[in-house]
Design goal:
alpha/beta; 8-stranded parallel barrel; binds S-adenosylmethionine; two-stranded antiparallel ribbon; TIM Barrel; 22 helices; binds iron/sulfur cluster; globular; 508 residues
Amino acid sequence: MTTVTYNAGAKRKTNVEAWVRARIKPDQIERYLDSGRCFIDCVAIEQALAANTRPDPVRIREILQKSLAVETLTPDETACLIHVQDPELLAEMQQAAAEVKRKVYDNRIVTFAPLYLGNLCVNNCAYCGFRCSNVTEQRQVLTLDEVRRETEVLAGLIGHKRLIVVYGEHPKTGVDYIASTLQAIGDVRVKTRKGWGQIRRCNVNAAPMSVEELKRLHEVGIGTFQVFQETYHRPTYERLHPRGTIKGDYLWRLYAMHRSMEADVDDVGLGALLGLYDWKFEVMGLLCHAIELERKFGIGPHTISFPRIEPAHNTPLAQHPEHQVSDEEFKRLVTVIRLAVPYSGMIITARESAALRREVLPLGCTQLDASSKIGIGAYANDQPEGDQQSDRQQFLLGDTRSLEEVIRELAEAGYITSFCTAGYRCGRTGKKIMGLLRSGKEGQFCKLNAVITFKEWLDDFAGPETTAVGEKLIAMEMAQIKEKMPGFYDQFVGAYLKTEAGARDLYF
Ligand code: SAM
Ligand code: SF4
């Protein structure tokens, strides 16, 4: 018996090793390089930062005008904003950031929930609780039945319409598994108070994939494809992601979004994990990435994420990040990203505390998660709100408030929660959405869809207090639609009344 077990284990190990070796396709990196060079030039970034440490207020105000015209800033302009210290000028920057957000996204906020499907991982990232050398982590991959049960809670009890599904990198959770879980999630429909609930958009946060694999996910139906570069600073990247692991290949990761575009998955999400290297450098890296995608494909990032490292089980580096970002620095970098890439969605996750999320939201964020649980299987397990299982999670969350609490607070502050997922289903992705966002026209569809989907959620899931606040907000929104889009008003009211009567998933 012992021999059999030993052989089976050894064979499994060999299979995993072979899978790892075949992951990276060098030609799917090389074809995007410019004369053999990648688009992140660490020296040029350091020089731009060093050359713009004392920005002139007149120049700063010119740069703000450019952001307000929804134009992407240059590295030098961004470096100037990064170095502003004068409190008055900083306040002007924050006002301009809020104005850019209003201009492009109005008062809408999109909500979603993270759904972790597995924590097996062949990589060994120094900051992550899922890294393969973390022997104390409880490993699990959800079966399709378990995935359906998680989805039933998210779509049927909480009322989410959008998820970000998250995977480690492992043959057991490769593209076949990702495709079948996306299908399983999309197929779940749950009866609600007045209609039915369903996840209508699945964004994916997974390891970089090949063009062929991404084409497969495109056929199945994928929302935004997110890959965070973690750090754009190559020496730091190579130190924290061991050589010989898949993730140890900086360029395979850096060109993940190029492959995504080539596979027609053109809503892509960039991100940097803050705390690994100087945040100023990471903001410049994100900007260079956005500029590169605009230049090569005519499409910038659909979203930008800027997670800070959170404590993770048995993970010393996450307890004490080498370049910890303070709350003040965090607010500054959110402001700068909003101004530097004005059209992009910006995600503030529940890694941050409720108090800090309240502060940074007005600086230009467009999306947040709520009722979030990141333990594998944690939604259907009935894990109480606020309880965290550190040895089954990648890290610990800072804000565990329910979706209803978050929506009510947002509505009281004048923000409408939009559950709209029409964009990619109507082909408003990539270049099309970029054009609409820059011109402010996307807002017309979005406003109508925001009201209709918000009404759906109120009728299906809200308690009396939230309903009262929400209905007041809807009345204000409808008055605005009547005034600003009179040509659409009757058609809009028709869809609104059908929704009130129990119809679901109507959109413009
Ligand atoms: N495994 C895939 C990968 O690494 O690309 C995708 C999923 S990974 C679970 C999602 C993201 O979590 C990573 O890209 C990283 O930025 C972030 N992350 C890892 N450890 C973290 C920590 N301790 N605190 C906050 N975020 C963390
Ligand atoms: Fe694996 Fe992703 Fe965690 Fe790295 S960050 S150890 S790749 S799950």
